[in-house]
Every structure is written in structure tokens, then in C-alpha cells.
Amino acid sequence: MPLLKIKKTARTAARLDLRRLILVLTICSALIPFANTFYAGYLVQRQQLIDTTLEGHYAYATKLAHSTDDFLQSALQQLGYSAKLMAGHMDDIHYLGEEATRLRLQTKSFNSVTVIDQTGYVLATSPETLQIAGKTLKSAGVTETLKARGPIISQPYMAVTDNFIIFVSQPIFSAQGKYLGAVGGSIYLKQESMLDTLLGSHFYQDGTYVFVVDKDKHIIYHPNNKRVGEQISNNDAINQVSRGESGKTPLINSQGIEMLAGYAVVPSTGWGIVAQRPKTATLAPLNALMRSVLYKTLPIALLMLLVIWWSARRIASPLRQLANGARDMDKPETAQSIQSVRSWYFESQELKKAMLRGFGLLHRNITKLREDVNTDPLTGLGNRRHLEAAITAFQAEKTPFAVVAIDIDHFKKINDSFGHDAGDEVLRQLGRQIREVSRVDDIPCRMGGEEFLLLLPVAPLHSAAQVAERLRVLVEETELATVGRITVSLGVAHWSDGNDIKAVFQQADAMLYAAKRGGRNRVEVVPAAAVAL
């Protein structure tokens, strides 16, 4: 007997009935336009907010750049006026000291003021706590001043006082045009200064901040003083402003944060002023607004959903009941179930009538078809489909069963000697005898040719062996009109939950072949140890 193949298929199908379809279509028709409008509106407002912020930051950076330039030009003018006054008093250390103090305190433009001669020697300083009077300075700012012999706004550098500063200076010339030295004001970049006040006091209170870089991309002003002096290279705004360009751009700063930045160049120094704000802070009010709009529409949306759900349920109820009836039309009680459906609108009423008219005929056809599909036409026993359905049921219910594999000995010889009609009669006779020894719940099947199977649910192995022996004896003792006596060989195995069901049928086959090899007309039972495996 060929090996029995048991196929298990797990099918998961989403049930889309009319109620769900109405709900889905109605919700989609409402939600998709709303979501599209909501999202499109969000995108438009988002872009407008970003563009407005960028434009505002650009305008603000430009204003600060001009204000910073005005401050520096004003500082140069102050120093220039004092330089003219000092030209006639370069030998009066007291006068120079008072003038330096006046310069520092009058406008507070400088953190310190220093007067030097043409060699860099400090003639006077304010405040005196710097303790550099009488020393010759070699700092970058002083060296640049002495070399230029003209108005200078130095690049940021570290002074001898350990301050990171900018040195703004004017030359001092005698009435005859001789270069006598210079007066310069220092602006401390890491301490409070007039420049810090100018750049740090702005009207934005939304997370916007300003920082300033020099031509070499060093930060010369930042709200976080610890970053002053740091060189930045991975920032688009700084890269562009260091090339003398002004503009606006979204960017990711050196800290990895998305920013919206506007930037402008200070004309007199080439510094770049950058005004920027985190993108998340810019969009936060819009996100809050959109959430508020969404929350306020939810109650109405939920109410509409409830009304739609109730209406869909009401409309779909008759069709759902009729569909359930159509699915179970092979059951006798379905006609009464369909008759009780309340079809309150035209389509469902007409469908109900049609179903009732066709129910009787369909039920008869289904019954006949089921019998034909599951029955062997020659013997009237179950066929392979019937066998597989029984095995599936046993597995699902974990019902143990015994298997008896049956094969007619020398059946080919019978066909060859007496003809196929005689062979068919032998098969029909064996089918009747299998039924005779079977119980009501047993499953007798013909697998094809002279091969038969008998399933005995809840039967232990020894009981199945007894049934097999009884069948063997019955067949052997029966005299057939045309062919005389025949014999059968039988193999017996047993299945219980947890064992491999395919192996059980293989064992029954193996026992059947063992009976054939042992001389035929025998019953072979699988050993107990094999059953345990």
C-alpha cells in the first residue's frame, strides 16, 4: 500500500462582511480627505513658519552686523579723538592715565585701555590692576598696531593678561606727523563687555541665540562663554559667512542639532554674525496647534463613527444572517433559520425568498454529492478523502485509534484467471465482510485496487488484532461462487496523541508486508516497543 500523505493547511482569511465594508468605506471617505487636508495644511504652515523664521533671522543678523559695525566705528572715533589729545602729552604719564581712564569709563566700550609708544612700551593703562605699565608688549594686537600705524581692529588673540581679546586702536601722531605710538581699547571676549551686551540683548525669547565668528571660523562671541575661541568647520552658515556671504539656511550645527539660521557679515571686520534657533523649537507651537485641532475634532469624529457603526450594523444584519444560512445550507435546521430572518428592505427580502426556494434542491444535491465524494463506488466503503477527514478529526480530538491494513492475496492472479468482473465481485464481498466485523464507529475504507484500511477509534492494539484475525478467518472460510476461497494478509498498528501519525501508517504497511513475506493469510501486529516510539 502506498504511504498515506497527511496534509495540514492553516488558512487565515480576513472576514470582510457588509457591515465592515460599510464601516471601512465610510470611514475612509471621511478620514482620507480630512487627513489629506490636515496634513497638507500642516505642511504649508510648517514651510511658512520655517521661511518666516529664516527670513527673520537673516534680517536680525543683518541688523546686528550693522549695529556691531557702528559700535566698532564709534569705538575707533573715540580712540581717534583721544589720540589727537594725547599727541601733545606723550611725556605726561599722569595725563595719559587719566585720559585712558576717561575712555574706559565714559562709554564702557572697552574693558581696558592702553597707551603705548612706537616700540610697544606701555605708557599708561586703565585699569591699573592689569599691571602692564612699564612693560613692552609683544602681543598679536600690539604687533599688528605698530606695524599698521593706522586704525586697527585686530583678530581675536590671547593677551598677556590671559584674556581672549580684540584690540581696537588708533595711531598717535605729533603735529609734525611723526608716529609716537597708539592708544587702544581691549574688548574681552570671555567676560562681560559692551560687545557682549550688544549681541546678547535681543528681542527674541523663543530659543533664538546669536554667536559671532571671525574670518578663521573662531567663535568670538557665544552665549556659552566656554565655546569662545573654539574653531567650527562643520556648519554651513559659518562656512558661507567666512567667505563674506550673507543669507539664510536650514542646517545641522556642530552639536548635531537641526537649526534655522540667518547670517550676515560685519563690513569693517569680516566677522560673521549668525542668528539661529532649533528647528524643533520653531515647529513646537505649530505641532501644539495641530494637536489641539485634532483633539477638538475627535469628539465629533467619535460620535459620527458611532452613528455609522449602528447604521452599518442595522443594514448588514439581515444579509449577515442570510450569509450564515448560505454557509450552512447543508444542515437541516438552516431552512428554519433563514425563515426567521427579518428582511426589512427590498434586496434582503428578495434574497431570502430565492434562498428558501433553492434550499430544498440544494440540500438534496449536497447530500448526494457528499456521498459520492467520500465513497468508493465499487464497494460502498469510504475512499481516501473520507479516510483523511476521519484522521483529521481524530487528531483534532486527540482520539487514539488502531489501524488495520488489509490486502487480498494473489489478487492479480484472480483477475488474470477469472476476469475483472470476478475481481470486482471479490472486492465487493471483502467490503461487506469488513463491514461485518466493524463496529458502528469504525472507519472502513478502500484505498485502491485490492488495498483496504480499517480505522478503529479508541481500540487498543490487542483488540484491533482480534478484529483483524476475525476478518482473516471470515474471509478464509467464505466460499465465492466463481473464484472459490480467497485469503487476506493484514498488518496492525496503533496511534495515540504525541506520536507521528505518518509513522503509524508506515508501521501498518510494514506489518502487512511482513505478513506477505511470512506466507500470506496472516495477521502481523506491530511490537509494543514500536508503538511506544
Can you characterise this structure?
50% of the residues lie in helices and 18% in strands. Strands 1, 2, 3, 4, 5 and 6 form a 6-stranded antiparallel β-sheet that branches. Strands 8-7-11-10-9 form a 5-stranded antiparallel β-sheet. A 5-stranded mixed β-sheet has the order 13-14-12-15-16, sandwiched between helices.
Low-confidence stretches: 1-14
Instruction: Give me the count of strands.
Output: 16
Instruction: Give me the number of helical elements.
Output: 14
Shape: elongated
Largest sheet: 6 strands, antiparallel
Measured as a percent range, the helix fraction is 40-55%
Residues in β-strands, percent: 15-25%
As a whole number of angstroms, the C-alpha radius of gyration is 52 Å
The H-and-E topology, N to C, reads as HHEEHEEEEHEEHEEEHHHHEHHEEHEHEH
Structural class: alpha+beta
C-alpha termini separation: 22 Å
Mean pLDDT: 84
In short:
The protein is of the alpha+beta class and 533 residues long.
Per-chain topology:
Layout lengths: L17 H69 L6 H15 L4 E6 L4 E5 L13 H9 L3 E2 L3 E2 L5 E10 L5 E10 L5 H7 L8 E5 L5 E3 L14 H6 L5 E6 L5 E8 L6 E7 H49 L6 H6 L6 H29 L9 H14 L3 E8 L2 H8 L1 H18 L5 E6 L2 E7 L3 H17 L10 E8 L5 H17 L5 E3 L2 H5 L1
What would the keywords be for this entry?
533 residues, 18% strand, alpha+beta, five-stranded antiparallel beta sheet, six-stranded antiparallel beta sheet
